Amino acid sequence: MQEKKIIVSRADITASCRAIHKPGEYTILPPGNRVFSNIPGLVGAETEVLAGPQIGANFIQYKVNLHENGGTETWLEQEYEQFIFINKGGLTLEYQNKKHQMKEGGFCWLPPHSSFRFLNKDNDTSEFIWIRRLYEEVPGIKIPDAIISNEKDVAAEPVDTYMEQHLTPYEDLGFDMGINIQKFDPGSYFSFVESHIMEHGLYMLYGNGIYWLNQDYIEVEKDAFIYMAPYCPQFFFTLGWDKAAYLLYKDVNRDLKLK
Question: Mind listing the pLDDT tens digit for each residue in 178-216?
């Protein structure tokens, strides 16, 4: 009996993959190449692990799809500082005996060892970005108080050729986690190629463009994630007639250490 053969309908399936991983340089994770992980302590959640120590990052970044009635099983209290940004839908955040209704564009920064929990009880599915890292204390510099707000309430200031919102006000040296939203008009671009000590976790909120990373041109669009290692040369310009914006993490305000 002749053996049956399975023929893949798309013979170019690997050629169409847009994920790129170059250790020590950068990682590109488009939505179509990401997979879900189960995270202990979260229920009703589909979690995409975007960045962590495995790719050389000194922070952890998740994209979480939280279904109705999903959330934390118990109160969380971790040594990490925490940042959450709502892409879609909303969350009820409980912190210091208060409930905060966070809608699309809502965000929070919580200092290390904060006790909190969250629940999606009003929406079919909510989507949010969750960033954590170990806070680096500095003698004489106060750890900032928590921030719970919405990006609509944060002023945008011109920086270089784009507009920038500081969701964490890292002009205050107490913050070692810088979180921006950078917004670009159609046809705008950086005025120079950046290369610096800070690593980045970048999540495209809307629009599309070309990122030039260490001599490589990569097209990115809504929901793409980029990890950039320290000193990776980087340059961005928008494509098309629509505006573009991304949420950007970077480490700030701390001196270097020799191990």
Answer: 999 999 999 999 999 999 999 999 999 999 999 999 999
| Pairwise CA distance, residues 204 & 246, whole Å | 4
**How remote is the C-alpha of 155 from its chain's centroid?**
20
Give residue 241's identity as a one-letter amino acid code.
W
DSSP 56: T
Cα torsion through 136, 138, 139, 144, rounded to 10: -90
Q: What DSSP string describes 176-207?
A: -EEEEEEEE-TT-B-SS-B--S--EEEEEEE-
Given this structure, which CATH class describes domain 20-251? mainly beta
What value does the mean pLDDT of the chain take?
A: 94
Q: Is 168 helix (H, G, I), strand (E, B) or coil?
A: coil
Task: Pick the closest to residue 109 from 196, 189, 179 (CA basis).
Answer: 179
The rounded Cα 163 to chain-centroid distance in angstroms is: 18
Per-position b or e across 119-128, b if 16+ CB within 10 A of its CB: bbeebeebbb
More confidently predicted of 21 and 2: 21
Distant-in-sequence, close-in-space partners of 202: CB < 8 Å, separation ≥ 6: 225, 226, 227, 228, 246, 247, 248, 249
pLDDT of residue 9: 53
Domain boundaries, the chain: 20-251
**Dist. CA 195–CA 232, nearest whole Å:** 6
Cα gap 15→36, rounded to integer Å: 23
